[in-house]
Specification:
33% of the residues lie in helices and 15% in strands. By secondary structure, the chain is an alpha/beta fold. Helix 4 crosses helix 5 and helix 5 packs across helix 7.
């Protein structure tokens, strides 16, 4: 009830009047049934503008901290997040990650729209970062359509650290559903999940036009923090280099075929030449190639 009150009578009409969001490809979002909306993440306001331009309710999985604050402000924050359709999840990993997966699956299997940001957090520098595999797992487990979304200009309207958004137009692009049918049955295989995730990130990149960097957004956040600290002492720290596209391909290259299955292997598909698993070591910049290389765990 609070969701529709805010959307249709309180916040919705005001925000539509002030920000006049432009929308492309809205017809790609199904009129009924479960679907996964996978989006880039530039601003806190992404979770407001995305459901604002759709007639259907959109549910997001939000970090639990938003719902556990104390005092008047904490209760107001929790009430707002519940009001705009967000559910609390524990993102600490392990068993908590599985619980979050079950929460998302329940939303999809009930025939609703679930919004998720594969990058896992807001982009700290406006670039598109490596996707985490949770969205691909949800898609393969549920079998619902996966609709890529690009938020345009929300980082200008409300950059990280700004509480009150400035008034400027924002845009949203919806793309055709990403075909993940070739990965069916591979929801428990990390290589399949990485390949499917890369397909999703390529679709988002094509819509957003962002530069892609093959490291997790949190890695870039940490590097930026070290750079600020080093600057105070007159030193410099390189940020992870961008370029290319998910899967190590050129931006306009076709997506590769699904990893080949090896029935005799206990690990499922044959491993690709470079380990794309989410447990791989952090990436380090390679200035000679102008792209990201993997650091050998032995330090080579």
């Amino acid at each position: 009830m609070l969701y529709w009150l805010l959307k249709r009578m309180v916040l919705g009409p005001l925000l539509l009047t002030l920000y006049r969001p432009w929308v492309e490809g809205r017809h790609h979002v199904p009129d009924h049934g479960g679907a996964l909306l996978v989006s880039n993440h530039l601003s806190f306001s992404d979770s407001i503008f995305l459901p604002l331009v759709l007639d259907r309710r959109v549910t997001f999985l939000a970090k639990e901290d938003y719902f556990t604050g104390r005092g008047v402000r904490g209760r107001l924050t929790a009430g707002f997040f519940r009001g705009v359709g967000q559910l609390p999840v524990d993102r600490s990993g392990g068993a908590a990650g599985l619980a979050s997966l079950r929460t998302g699956l329940a939303v999809l299997r009930s025939g609703e729209l679930l919004g998720i940001y594969p990058e896992g957090t807001r982009s700290p520098d406006g670039r598109l970062h490596r996707g985490r595999t949770g969205a691909a797992r949800l898609a393969l487990e549920s079998g619902v359509p996966v609709v890529p979304v690009a938020m345009i200009g929300t980082d200008v309207v409300q950059p990280v650290g700004r509480l009150v958004p400035s008034v400027r137009r924002v845009g949203l692009r919806f793309g055709p559903p990403v075909d993940l049918s070739r990965y069916a049955g591979g929801a428990d295989d990390r290589f399949v999940l990485r390949a499917a995730t890369d397909d999703v990130m390529r679709a988002i990149m094509a819509l957003s036009g962002q530069e892609y960097v093959d490291v997790y957004a949190q890695v870039t956040k940490d590097a930026m923090a070290r750079r600020r600290e080093a600057a105070e002492h007159g030193r410099d720290v390189d940020l992870p280099a961008g370029g290319g596209a998910p899967g190590g391909l050129a931006p306009d290259a076709p997506a590769p075929h699904a990893p080949a299955r090896d029935a005799s292997s206990p690990h499922g598909p044959t491993a690709p030449a470079s380990d794309p698993s989410p447990t791989a070591s952090p990436a380090a910049p390679d200035r000679r190639a102008g792209r990201v290389r993997r650091r050998d765990p032995r330090g080579r």
